[in-house]
Structures are given as structure tokens and as C-alpha cells.
Design goal:
Length: 223
């Protein structure tokens, strides 16, 4: 009898090179057209929220110029790669090893020297670790504060809300001027209710800076 990992049966890594048109930025990246949610491989595909945030970045490129950016739950990394056309440094992060391999593949493909990839699981002082310990992304250092923290379609499972909000809170605590952007696609009402309650408890305020139907981009601040 052969030993095998059951998870392997569900993991497809037959990535295709897709082209995404953001106007002045045409970004190519490897991704899948569909994936499984069972092991949270949602990051293998590029979600509409990533496209919406990519467009926002190009339309508001002056906000991103010369900045140090951390993308949370980057998935294939398309949004962060768009930002890298303007930013000083972009750290693309995710917590799933399969997704991190995809991020690495895209990092290697784009050959941009300001793009880095590392593992970040939300919560647990994950932003502090970048800033003070030089732990993630070898070219971030103590003089380089994080100017922008952003995430596209990172709000979907109620159980991950606490860690995510802790991380957004942490980013604003370290640097009150940090621009925190969340590209949010509204799907499940009870997740939204829980999100809004948790944000209020943490005194996190959201300002809608883009809206099209169920797609929002929020700027998050601390009251
Ligand atoms: C729906 S996908 C969005 C991917 C990409 N941002 C996009 O919009 O195309 C959510 C991403 O968040 C990542 N993620 C979920 N929970 C996480 C956690 N606790 N820490 C870090 N990343 C997480 C997943 O691995 C996945 O890549």
C-alpha cells in the first residue's frame, strides 16, 4: 500500500500565466481559474477585490509612490505587484505554504527588485516582527517603517476576523499615519455584522473610498 497525503488529492498547482489590465499597468501573474476552499487555497485564484484594489492603486498612484507596503493575504499577489510599480518596497504575505510557493513563483517571474515574499499569519505581532526584528523580507530594516498595509478579500471567515483586526490595529499602533486599505466584497450578512461589532470594540473606523455594488474599498483608521 502506498502512503499518500489526502490533501495532495485536492491541490492543483497547474498555474497559468494570466494578464490583468489596470490601464497604465498591465500585470501578468501565475494563478488558477478555480481552487478549493477546504484547505484555504482561495489564494490560488485572483479575486475581484484584488482587481478593484489594483485599479484604485493605479488611479491613486501618488499615495503609493515611494512607500513601504505590506500586503496581507496576498494570494497570487496581483494587487501588491501593481503597487510595486510605484512603491519603494512591497512585501507580499500569506499563511498557506501552497500559496506562498505561488507568490514565490510570481516574485521570480516579475523580476522586480522591490518585491519580497514571506509568511505572515495574522495576529501575533506580525507587523512588529517585520519592523523591529527584520524577520520578514530581508531588505526591510529598522529605518524602514511600514507606510501602507493592505488586503484584498481577506474578510470571509468569521474565525479569521480577530487575527486580521489585531493586525490592522497593530499597524496603526506602530505608525498612526499608516494607510490601511481593505478591499472588501460583501457576501454573508452575519460575517459583516460580526466584523462591524468587532471593529467598533477595537475603535477601528472604516471610511468607504470606493464602492461599486457589493465591492468596497475601505480606509481603516483608529478613532
Ligand atoms: C480570498 S483569498 C484573497 C487572495 C487575494 N488577496 C485576492 O484578492 O485575489 C484570501 C487570502 O487570505 C489568506 N489568509 C486567510 N487567512 C489568513 C491568515 N489568518 N493569515 C494570513 N493569510 C490568511 C489566504 O491564504 C488567501 O490567500
Amino acid at each position: 500500500m502506498t502512503d499518500f497525503e489526502v490533501g495532495d488529492l485536492f491541490v492543483c498547482e497547474d498555474y497559468v500565466l494570466e494578464s490583468f489590465d489596470f490601464g497604465e499597468v498591465k500585470q501578468k501573474a501565475y494563478c488558477l481559474k478555480s481552487s478549493v476552499t477546504d484547505f484555504d487555497l482561495t489564494g490560488q485564484i485572483v479575486w475581484p477585490a484584488a482587481i478593484a484594489l489594483g485599479k484604485y492603486i493605479v488611479d491613486n498612484k501618488e499615495l503609493f509612490a515611494g512607500k513601504n507596503i505590506v500586503e496581507l493575504g496576498a494570494g497570487a499577489g496581483v494587487t501588491g505587484l501593481v503597487a510595486a510599480h510605484y512603491a519603494k518596497k512591497v512585501l507580499l504575505t500569506d499563511y498557506m505554504d501552497v500559496v506562498l510557493q505561488l507568490l514565490k513563483k510570481n516574485e521570480e517571474y516579475v523580476q522586480m527588485d522591490n518585491v519580497f515574499v514571506d509568511k505572515i499569519s495574522w495576529g501575533e505581532n506580525c507587523i512588529k516582527n517585520i519592523d523591529t526584528e527584520n524577520k520578514f523580507g530581508k531588505k526591510f530594516n529598522n529605518d524602514d517603517k511600514v507606510d501602507i498595509v493592505m488586503g484584498a478579500d481577506v474578510i470571509f471567515w468569521p474565525e479569521s476576523l480577530d487575527g486580521l483586526l489585531e493586525t490592522l490595529d497593530e499597524a496603526l499602533e506602530i505608525n498612526p499615519d499608516c494607510l490601511v486599505l481593505i478591499s472588501f466584497y460583501s457576501r454573508v450578512k452575519h460575517t459583516n455584522t460580526s466584523l462591524f461589532e468587532k471593529m467598533e470594540k477595537k475603535s477601528l473606523k472604516r471610511e468607504t473610498i470606493f464602492n461599486d455594488g457589493d465591492q468596497y474599498i475601505w480606509k481603516i483608521t483608529k478613532q
